[in-house]
């Protein structure tokens, strides 16, 4: 049997090489072609690829989120389909809409999902390989190797993947966003925007546990666009799991009576009035719910960092100060996303806790 493995981008190549290795171990009669490995110097790349697709019996598509719209995968899979070859998409990343980018040929191909319990049997069946203890053990080791590759190439901590994906799915955050370094996603725009709060709140509602906001006026939160959040919080506080196994919502306001107000904005009186208005809106949203009142506090310290916690992700930014020491506008500025288990994440959690403990109760 001849197998052609289609890949695009570095992580997909690593999966392709691992798949080539395991197939050749499982059945020495299987000949596997991977372009990066099997094209020698001087060969015409495109001609050799076409020849190997023509001669293959099965084409394996190495799918990752990075290759979702790869023209190479589209071309090679489409050409193989046109030649009547069997195309086997192997999904190394979870994506329910993995073939939404093209109607043909992918939506007519039965995929193999590495994350499913049935993957070992599905893999053996797809390549007509005997179901033996040895072969199942080889595939189990192959999956372990795949997981190690995924961890090596994962751009952010695994706890942040869903949040970063949600931000990427929102077109507001896709212009030159994000870049990744040291397991941190760096977004160049979008902080303190309505779009960011929309993603945060939709991610938190019904499935989230933690939402901590170290705000100032929290004007976006109490703009009237997120009344569903406060209805949800009101309902949750009636449950017996509130504050124990349930959710942990906290929101910090700057205390309007603190000296820090004079340094928080150039136009102090306007800022103080807006701050008091937002606090009044918060009190209206809380109503007479005593449990929900405990979720809000007033701090008096200078805010040198902005910390938002969504479950096991930290959304982080730092205010920029002008020459007079006043913080500049934060809306649509840059921000970072990293995990709570990282060293920076632990520092942010500890800092938020210290500020929370020192803050006044919300009366």
Furnish the topology, listing elements before pairings.
Blueprint lengths: L1 E5 L3 H17 L4 E3 L1 H4 L6 H11 L2 E6 L7 H12 L3 E6 L20 E2 L5 H8 L6 H21 L7 H9 L9 E3 L2 E8 L2 H11 L5 E5 L12 H10 L11 E7 L6 H4 L3 H19 L3 H4 L2 E4 L6 E5 L2 E5 L15 E7 L3 H16 L1 E2 L2
Parallel strand pairs: 1-2, 1-3, 3-4, 4-5, 8-9, 9-10
Antiparallel strand pairs: 6-7, 7-13, 8-11, 10-14, 11-12, 12-13
Helix pairs in contact: 1-6, 5-6
Key descriptive features of the protein:
Endonuclease, Chain A, 14 strands, alpha/beta, 363 residues, 2 domains, 5-stranded parallel β-sheet, 13 helices, 9-stranded mixed β-sheet, Rossmann fold
Explain what this protein looks like in three dimensions:
The strands form two sheets. A nine-stranded mixed β-sheet has the order 6-7-13-12-11-8-9-10-14, sandwiched between helices. The chain has a five-stranded parallel β-sheet with strand order 2-1-3-4-5, sandwiched between helices. The chain is elongated and about 80 Å long. It folds into two domains: 2-153, Toll/interleukin-1 receptor homology (TIR) domain (Rossmann fold, 3-Layer(aba) Sandwich); 158-361, Endonuclease, Chain A. The chain contains 13 helices and 14 strands. 40% of the residues lie in helices and 19% in strands. Residues 100-105 have low confidence and may be disordered. The chain is α/β, with parallel strands linked by helices and 363 residues long.
């Amino acid at each position: 049997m001849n197998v052609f493995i289609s890949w695009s981008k570095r992580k997909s190549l690593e999966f392709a090489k691992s798949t080539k290795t395991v197939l050749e171990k499982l059945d020495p009669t299987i000949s596997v072609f991977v372009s990066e490995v099997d094209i020698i110097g001087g060969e015409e790349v495109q001609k050799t690829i076409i020849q190997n697709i023509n001669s293959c019996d099965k084409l394996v598509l190495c799918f990752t989120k990075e290759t979702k719209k790869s023209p190479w995968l589209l071309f090679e899979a489409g050409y193989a389909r046109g030649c009547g070859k069997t195309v086997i998409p192997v999904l190394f990343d979870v994506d329910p809409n993995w073939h939404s980018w093209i109607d043909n040929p992918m939506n007519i191909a039965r995929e193999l999902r590495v994350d499913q319990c049935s993957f070992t049997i599905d893999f053996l069946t797809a390549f007509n390989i005997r179901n033996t203890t040895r072969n199942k053990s080889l595939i189990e080791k192959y999956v372990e190797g795949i997981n190690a590759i995924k961890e090596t190439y994962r751009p952010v901590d695994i706890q942040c993947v869903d949040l970063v994906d949600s931000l990427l799915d929102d077109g507001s955050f896709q212009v030159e966003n994000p870049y990744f370094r040291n397991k941190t996603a760096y977004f160049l725009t979008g902080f303190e925007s309505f779009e960011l709060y929309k993603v945060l709140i939709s991610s938190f509602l019904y499935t989230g546990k933690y939402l901590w906001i170290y705000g100032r006026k929290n004007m976006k939160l109490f703009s009237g666009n997120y009344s569903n959040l406060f209805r949800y919080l009101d309902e949750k506080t009636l449950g017996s799991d509130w504050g124990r196994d349930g959710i942990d919502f906290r929101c910090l306001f700057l205390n309007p009576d603190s000296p820090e107000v004079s340094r928080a904005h150039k136009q102090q009186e306007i800022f103080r009035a807006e701050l008091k208005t937002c606090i009044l809106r918060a009190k209206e949203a809380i109503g007479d719910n005593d449990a929900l009142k405990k979720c809000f506090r007033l701090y008096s310290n200078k805010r040198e960092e902005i910390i938002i916690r969504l479950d096991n992700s930290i959304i982080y930014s730092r205010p920029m100060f002008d020459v007079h020491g006043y913080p500049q506008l934060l809306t649509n500025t840059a921000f970072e996303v990293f995990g709570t288990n990282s060293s920076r994440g632990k520092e942010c959690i500890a800092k938020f806790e210290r500020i929370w403990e020192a803050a006044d109760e919300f009366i």
